Amino acid sequence: MELNMSAEEVLGHIVQLHSTGESLAKKNVKKLHPDLMKNALYYYPSWEHALQKTGVGNIVH
DSSP 3-state assignment of 22? Predict the structure, then answer.
């Protein structure tokens, strides 16, 4: 698998999506941002873990 983001970039992208009001629901991100999801699941055990690392884990729309 080829990665194009670091773990820090993954978290930064999640925070950016959150700040623009985009849904962070796994299904939405997988559809609209497949590279972000792929990279997040490489660095973290689950999408939820990645969200928790950013501090927005309990604010999923």
Answer: coil
What pTM was estimated for this model as a whole? 0.87
Instruction: List, as one string, the DSSP characters of 34-47.
Output: HHHHHHHHHHSSSH
Decide: 17 and 53 in contact? Cβ < 8 Å.
no
Which are the contacts of 10, defined by CB distance < 8 A and separation ≥ 6? 36, 39, 40, 43, 44, 50
Determine contact, residues 3/10, Cβ cutoff 8 Å: no
**Do residues 37 and 4 lie in contact, with contact meaning Cβ atoms separated by under 8 Å?**
no
CA quadruple 31, 34, 36, 39: dihedral sign = positive
Q: Per residue in 20-40, pLDDT tens?
A: 999 999 999 999 999 999 999
